[in-house]
Amino acid sequence: MQGMDIQTGKAISGIAHLKQSITNILTTPKGSRIMRREYGSNLFNRIDNPINGELIANIYSDIVEAIFNFEPRFEVSSISVDSILPGAIILSLEGKYLPTNESLKIENITITKGQQ
User: Fold this and answer.
1) How far apart are CA 6 and CA 11, in angstroms?
2) Tens digit of pLDDT for each residue in 92-103?
3) Is 78:64 a contact under the CB 8 Å cutoff?
């Protein structure tokens, strides 16, 4: 799959496109795209919630659901909530890039209130 780099406007493909796609999915609030209301994740509903086991479980569930629904090239094997700050959640993912069976780590995915 090929796309356009959001920083440079140049064509990207492969793992670079996958990383950008996953970041876009997780940082897009579900319901915010007019023609694709189901696209994105529910992670914004988790920002500033009390930090406990239920919050972590909900974050994991939201990530797996969003990637399963919108990014068939990636299989999640591990999720790390690196930091929960006022107004932000910082995540890392590990998994497999399915077209090549390559192990992959995606770090520093930051979900903030300002993205809504």
Assistant:
1) 10
2) 999 999 999 999
3) no
HSE value, Cβ hemisphere, 13 Å, CA-based, for 72: 1
DSSP-derived 3-state class of residue 77: strand
Q: How far apart are CA 110 and CA 32, in angstroms?
A: 18
Tell me which amino acid residue 42 is. Answer: N
pLDDT per residue over 9-51, tens digit each? 889 999 999 999 999 999 999 989 889 999 999 999 999 999 9
Residue 3 in contact with residue 11, Cβ under 8 Å? yes
User: Of all helices (H) and strands (E), which one includes residue 18?
Assistant: helix 14-27
For the beta carbon of residue 108, count every other beta carbon within 10 angstroms.
10
